[in-house]
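Write out the 3D structure for:
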Amino acid sequence: MESRSQLYYRDHEEELNELSNKIAILKDLSSDLGTTVQDQDDLLGSVGDSMSTTSAAIHKTAEKVSYMIHHKKVSLIYIVLLVLVVFLIAYMLISYLLRSH
């Protein structure tokens, strides 16, 4: 028959083992969470870079269109077509970048 201190020690060991298992589970969860956060950060960085590139291209195109309107007397249909092509290219670029991640 086990003494009272041996029972206490055995119960204490079982509780410590349970606690150790729960800590291991929490450690795995926090590691997975850290990986997910890093992946999302990488994706957001990529999207931000592509948005900056697209914004710069749109700004440059807008400057060219403005110049053409004021100095070249270009037909409005050509300007509309140019703007549509630029937006189509920007859409395709963003779609490609989002699908590649």
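The mean pLDDT is 85.
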